[in-house]
Amino acid sequence: MIEMVNLSGGYGRKTAARDVSLAFRDGEVTAVIGPNGCGKSTLLKLCAGQLAPEAGTVRADGRDLSGLRAREIARSVAYMPQSRPVPDMTVGTLALHGRFPWLGYPRVYGEADARAAEEAMSRTGILGKRGEMLARLSGGERQKAYLAMTLAQGTPNLLLDEPATYLDVAVQLELAAIMREAAGEGKCVAAVMHDVAAAAELADRLAVMKDGRLLAAGAPEEVLGSGAVEEAFGIRLSRGERLVFGR
Questions:
Q1: What is the pLDDT of residues 27-67, one digit of tens each?
Q2: Which of 111, 141, 230, 237 is least enclosed by beta carbons within 10 angstroms?
Q3: Sign of the C-alpha dihedral, residues 132, 185, 5, 67?
Q4: β-bridge partners, 244
């Protein structure tokens, strides 16, 4: 579980997330939605220890991140950023990189690390590509490889920034199923998403942000009925069998 209390942070003089109090719960998928530039990605970086807070607190499984070393954080929270380089390595090597927080000295991968990486690749459907170079993969395959690395990290908390952006529908559905499976195992799963309808379908809870602030958080039906989505995106939202957007 990840808890934020009056959390603020950003980059240099720009505060991108402001006074956010929110919890990502164990056994649930929380989708963080809002317009571009509203602070969603910054919020995840603060929760992953990638950024130091300007104010407030982040706790992972009851422990304040400010008092933990990077390796301790990485044993509790796995973070998959939206933008990543394409390193010159195979899928299997990338998956093994997720085990780095657990390596002792000397930093040599053991049998347990190999098993964790193989299981993660199997779960994401990329095991058959384990010997292929990342640069030769499609966008969807590469996303599965990075998700395998994230799962191989073996943490109770998973933070995913736009995991399905620019991917075809089939891959989006596969990734959604993986997130739901992880939550079903008791993990805390939070994902920044840009597709409101997909977020409402996937998530147990929605968190809506605008201008760095949290407008609403709760069950999808509650949040969709609160007017927060309309306020955040400047749209008209009708709910029947499907969500309908208008101006």
A1: 999 999 999 999 999 999 999 999 999 999 999 999 999 99
A2: 111
A3: negative
A4: 238
Distance CA 119, CA 234 (A): 43
Beta-strand ranges (E) seen in the chain are 2-11, 14-24, 29-33, 55-60, 63-64, 77-80, 157-161, 188-192, 205-210, 213-218, 236-239, 243-246
Neighbours of 14 (CB within 10 A): 8
DSSP state of 38: S
Sketch the domain layout of the chain as residue ranges. Answer: 2-82+156-246
Contact status, residue 237 vs residue 244, Cβ threshold 8 Å: yes
Q: Which pTM was predicted?
A: 0.92
Partner residues linked to 10 by β-bridges? 15
Pick the CATH number of 2-82+156-246 from 3.90.700.10, 3.40.50.1000, 3.40.50.300, 3.80.10.10: 3.40.50.300
Q: State how far the Cα of 245 lies from the Cα of 195, in Å rounded to an integer.
A: 11
pLDDT digits (tens, 9 = 90+) for 133-159: 999 999 899 999 999 999 999 999 999
Cα distance between residue 65 and residue 70, in whole Å:
9
Residues 159-196: b if buried by 16+ CB within 10 A, e if exposed: bbbbbbeebeeebbebbbebbeebbeeebbbbbbbebb
CB 31 within 8 A of CB 83: no
Report cis status (omega within 30 of 0) of the bond before 106. Answer: yes
